[in-house]
Amino acid sequence: MIEELRGFQQHITDQLDICLTLPQAPAQLVAAMRYALFNGGKRIRPGLVYLAGQALGSAVESSDKSACAIELIHCYSLIHDDLPSMDDDDLRRGQPTVHIQFDEATAILAGDGLQALAFELVATDKHLDADTRLDIIRILSHAAGPSGMVGGQSIDMAAESRHISAAELENMHRRKTGDLIAACLQMAARIKGADELTQNALVTYGYNLGLAFQIRDDILDHTGDTATLGKPSGSDLSNHKSTFVSLHGLAGARDQLELLRLDAIDALTTLGPAAGPLISLANYISSRTY
Fold first, then answer.
1. What are the start-end ranges of the H helices in the chain?
2. Where residue 94 falls among pLDDT bands split at 50, 70, 90?
3. Distance between CA 177 and CA 156 in Å, rounded?
4. Average pLDDT value for residue range 193-201
5. Could you give all domains of the chain from N- to C-terminal order, each with its CATH number?
6. How far from 260 is each of 51, 82, 123, CA to CA, in Å?
7. To 5 degrees, how large is the angle CA 92–CA 38–CA 135?
């Protein structure tokens, strides 16, 4: 983990803990939501909001609720992705998945709760003006919705047990992973009021980073082990999913990963030295072991 992201991790954890203090909600529901949220995640998405905001000169508190919101959306998607009707996974980050630890109905409701809470956090963020809050909600809902992450998940489910083209695979992961990661950068740019050139540079970086993240996942699924990954290795193969490794081979997937890393870094030229932590993150994403 890069030092700059590690520096934000405790702050992210503290902010998420505040957001998940919900005395009026049913205790079992909150327990499942907290279980999904505090189980060792790398916090890359909220970290991106903070790192991009730092590069642009934003105050940390102006990013808090947006950073928490995107992590809640991410964790809700993982709960639902692990369900028996989806990927049917028993492990997530080395721990039983939410539907195994609790039950399937509680897992579904915990995911629903995290999703709804994400938008409440942004809508009530006192550090942002009304227009900015509305724009953040628009960015987040589009990235997480039927044209973004959920659409990508739907394409993924429909693609099981059949061969898809390289273009279809890239489109699927651009939506499933890339849209939410790019949204982190887009939100940070909107919070600061960055110009169009800077916003476009950050979003380009985000999409390259998102696709690189997915290719690295595919490589690790092929080469890693369950103990290191914290989830079953080889699950894509057993579920008959098309991956960058199955379509391009291991060497070809690694070549694509390197090109995306370089393209992500190149997109940040306009930020100058302030882009250093974001460059370090791109290097980390491309070489991570879990």
1. 3-19, 27-37, 44-56, 64-81, 98-101, 104-123, 130-144, 149-158, 166-173, 179-192, 196-223, 226-229, 235-238, 244-267, 276-287
2. confident
3. 11
4. 96
5. 3-287 (1.10.600.10)
6. 20, 28, 34
7. 100
Directed axis angle between helix 44-56 and helix 179-192, to 10°? 30
CA 52 to chain centroid: 15
Answer for the pair 55, 199: CB distance below 8 angstroms, yes or no. Answer: no
86's tokens: 């989806």
Instruction: Kindly report the pTM of this predicted structure.
Output: 0.91
Tens digits of residue pLDDT in 254-288:
999 999 999 999 999 999 999 999 999 999 999 98
Overall residue count recorded for the chain in this entry? 290
Query: Does residue 225 surpass a pLDDT of 90?
Result: no
Q: Which amino acid is at 12?
A: I
